[in-house]
Every structure is written in structure tokens, then in C-alpha cells.
Predict the structure.
Amino acid sequence: MREIGIIVSLITGALILLVRDWRMVLLALLGQYVAVGLILSQVTPPEIALIKMLVGAFVCLMLYLAARHSGWSAPAGLDAPRFSGDGAGIRDPLPWTGLAFRALTLCLVFILTTVFTRDYPLPEIPPEIGLTCYWLMLIGLVILMLTGQPLLAGPGLLTALTGFELLYTLLESSLVIVFLLAAVNLLLTASISYLVAVQGRNPSGERS
């Protein structure tokens, strides 16, 4: 199960970077939370893994409802320079980050992740889980830098936070820490949902 969780974490991180359909991004984010829950279920008490998966499901539901209720009804294509919300376009402030550029960035991030895992192994963490932690944190930060849309940048930030959570939970697996991290996730998601709603209701506004 742990190996499956690691593989799914790598795949979902890549999808969140490559895909520009917000529905697919949220689906990949949900899969990522489930994958991390599977990893935690093998190395921590099962209730911690369950909390992580439930929080992840609630996070994705909040983002989905915010997007739907604010007019993000039509998904953008892989390389579309605009988003559509009820027929109105929203200009992507970073249109140069096309699919080819993101694919190249993905390869570079994977190389950097393997180098970090080899040269800077995380203490008391199995190497394959250390690889997952590095991957999620790095890919999340890259996603955050490569898009100006909150509905795409938000999952990137949450991905980076998930990598940090995985690392910290393995080092300190008390329920108090788990609940504090869950609260941070929910507060952060509430902020992202607000930005999504504001942008969805002002589709003609130019963002920079």
C-alpha cells in the first residue's frame, strides 16, 4: 500500500502541474490526499491517516463548490490562455507557461528531487518517503510560481503543504499536531476559495 501511495503521489503532483482543466486539477488533488493517507496508514496510527484523507476530501469539496457557485462552469484547455466562467474569459496573467514549458519544468523538478533525496536524505525518514516529501514540496512551489490563477495556484500551495505535513507527521505524529495542520489546511482553503469566488464574479478584470 505504501508503494502505491508513493506512485500515486508522484503522478498526481505531475498532473496538477501539467493540467489546466480545474476539474482535473481538483480530482488529482483529491487523489493526492488519498495517496498520502495510504502512506501514513503504513507508518502512523490509522486515525491520523483517516483524518488526513477526510480533511483532503473537505478541502477539494470547498474548492469545487467555490468554483461552481462563482461561475467557473467551463474548464480551460491544456494550453488555453483564458479561463471561461459562464462564457466570459479571464485572461491568464502567465500565458507563456505552455504545456511544453511545464513538461520541461516537470523533468527538472524530478531530477532535483532525486538529487535532494540522494545528497540530503531526511533524518529518520525512509528514502522512498523522503522522495515523496521532497517531490510534493518542490512541485507545489513550482506550480505556485507558474500560474496566476487562484484555482490552479491554490492546489499547488496545498500540494507543498501536504509534502511538509507528510514529513512533519512522520517526525511528530501526535493528534494535536495533526489537528493543527488540519486547521491550517482548512483556513488556507477558505482563503483560496474566497479568491476563486472574487475572480469568478469579476471575469473581465485583468490580473497581473
User: Anything to note?
Assistant: Residues 2-71+99-200 form one domain. Residues 144 and 153 are 5 Å apart (CA to CA). Confidence is low (pLDDT under 50) at residues 74-91.
